[in-house]
Amino acid sequence: MPTGVEPEALLEALDIVRRGPHVVAIGGGKGLARALEAIRGYAGRIDAIVTVADDGGSSGRLSPHLDIPPPGDIRKSLVALTPDDSVWRRLFEYRFEGADVRGHSLGNLIIAALAEIEGSFEGALRSSERLLGALGSVIPASPWHLQLAADIDGAEVRGQVNVSLARGTVTAVRVIPGDAPVTETAVAAVEVADQIVLGPGSLYTSIAATLVVPGIVDAINRSSASLVYIANIVTQDGETLGMDAVDHLDSLLRTTGVRPPSAIVASDSPVFVAPPLEAVGIDAEAAATYGADVVMADLLDRTVERPSHDPTRLGEVLRGLVRT
Asked: What is the CATH number of the domain that holds 307?
């Protein structure tokens, strides 16, 4: 983080009053959104640090042309931090199905428009939070739109979508350009957090993609916050086939340099999925070698078709891991 910049001063600009534990969640996509819904139930302050390497769908169409970070994962996090239904929430979730705007999320377009109106992407996010009544702040990991790259079976694969589809062993993950700046408020949030949450979500294209932005891992490793890793419920085709929870964690530590977590949260609910996918199991003895407490609980959300974490149950577990 640049010298002379105080974390507390940066965080004051976000206009949030602390009334409980300060929780920072890191990642992207639906996994981060589920974590944020869980964290909403116990945190006094929430900051979501979100990947800016998404190049698919509506984000992939908007970001390069408007020179803004991809808004899709950011929009999902904003909605997840919004507790009540409203016209604004429905607008941010609306997706067009026809004409020239087919496939675009209206929320993405609103964020892009606000960036021009406010004169900055950060200003657009603060306005979006006020419109939605969000119970926290969403912070892009970098102010730039970055490209994700990974070494898979000895070959470099570029682009978030391509990495997500490539089967093989991932040995390295990075963002391009490698000297991209980190968002200062992201570093500030991590440095003064009480709890930092990684996962659930796509191992390489959401979690690692955020951590490898230069400056994020350094901030985590010097922070005194407890670090919690939430294991996925099922494997992901193209990224983590055949990997259990310890394999996920080992690869994350190896490819990003982040310190081992103080706790690993895993679901013990029976899950049945079609091959080649499978439930993510955990070897408690192997996990203990990282010095982490392993917390097992029934975390499955039975109201949705796709195996996902139940925000209420997950929130109860995460609340119990806050240092007092």
From this structure: 3.40.50.10680
pLDDT tens across 266-316, in order? 999 999 999 999 999 999 899 989 999 999 999 999 999 999 999 999 999
- What DSSP element (H or E) covers 321? none
Largest Cα separation within the chain, whole Å, is 55
In a domain, 2, yes or no: no
Q: Has residue 188 been placed in a domain? A: yes
How is residue 176 written in tokens? 């391009």
- 242 inside domain: yes
Count the domains in the chain.
1
Residue 29 lies in a domain: yes
- Give the sign of the dihedral formed by CA 282, CA 286, CA 290, CA 295: positive
Which letter does DSSP use for residue 309 in this model?
B
C-beta separation of 165 from 151 below 8 A: no
Please state, in angstroms and rounded to a whole number, the distance separating the CA atoms of residues 315 and 134. 17
Q: What is the dihedral of CA 66, 131, 135, 105, to 10 degrees?
A: -40
Joined tokens for residue 128 = 């979006």
Distance CA 307, CA 309 (A): 7
Domain that holds residue 252: 7-320
pLDDT of residue 12: 52
